[in-house]
Amino acid sequence: MKLNILEQKDNEIKVEIEGENHTIANALRKELWENKNVKVSGYNIKHGLIRNPVLVIETEKEKPLVALKKAVSGLKKKMKDLKTVFKKL
Q: pTM for the whole thing?
């Protein structure tokens, strides 16, 4: 997976996620909404056959890239917790 910053401002960023689809983009979008400093979190995929979603993040009181890093860390922890639960089954 490769991230390409398409546009970056003080409180907004657009990031292309190469080689991915709705699965990771939607998980990141939802995790970003857990952050009280995130005003906008969404993504767009221009065509169903073309991967590479573009994630849009707009924040208050925090840099959007910081919010994205926090969201990635949060997802990583949730996946680790999920893995632990599955191992117990």
A: 0.89
